[in-house]
Design a protein that fits this description.
By secondary structure, the chain is of the alpha/beta class. It has two domains: about 70 residues, Helicase, Ruva Protein, domain 3, CATH 1.10.8; about 130 residues, 3-Layer(aba) Sandwich (Rossmann fold), CATH 3.40.50. It is built from seven helices and four strands. It comes from Nonomuraea solani. InterPro entries: Phosphatase-like_N (IPR048716), Ptyr_pPase (IPR023485), Ptyr_pPase_sf (IPR036196). It holds the Pfam family LMWPc.
Length: about 220
């Protein structure tokens, strides 16, 4: 594999090394599916998505690797290279910091490996809403490992269901997709007390969606 050129003026030596390591990891994961050029491009564009707003620069290569992995999986589905048939649901809101993150948390927790959940925002924020984190922790679900991120065309195209929550015209529209619009209060700036009923309504809707998709919720969860 030809080594990608990561010697950009905006990257430190440590960041260059971390991105090169990420490229090697992704190349091994997608060997036989995508070539080095595609992986390099997705990794760099994913890095650029976060570089302008990340509060902790040291985490940028890791965030870029995780987002590039998600995008490459989506591209594999779009291009017919993924034949697993596992349903994919994309949860979208404005900042990807509250509602869509709680929905993803419940979906992943309840569906396990029987369905894939992704989330994104039309205007991603800098961090997940602390009240949403605490409200989900009360239900035994840790969403601190997630981070606000944008949606991309391949991610939206790969989804079987797109659930929107307040992003209006900024949300993607692709013919033939199943859409659901969940009218939910915005938890931004709200206390944990105010977020709890939003959380509970999200859980109810996620459970109903899983039932409609024929995906059984994991026994004993929440």
């Amino acid at each position: 594999m030809t080594q990608p050129a990561y010697r950009r003026a905006d990257l430190t030596i440590d960041q260059q090394h971390a991105l090169l390591t990420a490229a090697r990891t992704l190349a091994a994961e997608f060997d036989g599916t995508f070539g080095a050029e595609t992986i390099d491009r997705f990794l760099h564009t994913s890095y650029d998505q976060f570089a302008g707003r990340a509060t902790v620069a040291n985490f940028l290569p890791l965030m870029a690797e995780r987002f590039a992995r998600q995008r490459l999986r989506a591209l594999a589905r779009v291009e017919g290279k993924d034949h697993s048939g596992t349903p994919i649901v994309l949860f979208l809101c404005v900042h990807n910091a509250g509602r869509s993150q709680m929905a993803l948390g419940f979906f992943t927790h309840l569906a396990g490996d029987r369905a894939i959940g992704w989330s994104g925002g039309s205007e991603p924020g800098e961090r997940i809403n602390p009240s949403a984190i605490e409200a989900m922790r009360e239900r035994g679900i840790d969403i601190t490992g997630e981070y606000p991120k944008p949606w991309t065309h391949e991610i939206a195209q790969a989804a079987d269901v797109i659930v929107t929550m307040g992003c209006g015209d900024a949300c993607p529209v692709f013919p033939g997709k199943r859409y659901e619009d969940w009218a939910l209060a915005d938890p931004a700036g709200q206390s944990v007390d105010a977020v709890r009923p939003i959380r509970d309504e999200i859980e109810r809707r996620v459970r109903a969606l899983l039932d409609e998709l024929g995906v059984p919720a994991a026994a004993g969860n929440t």
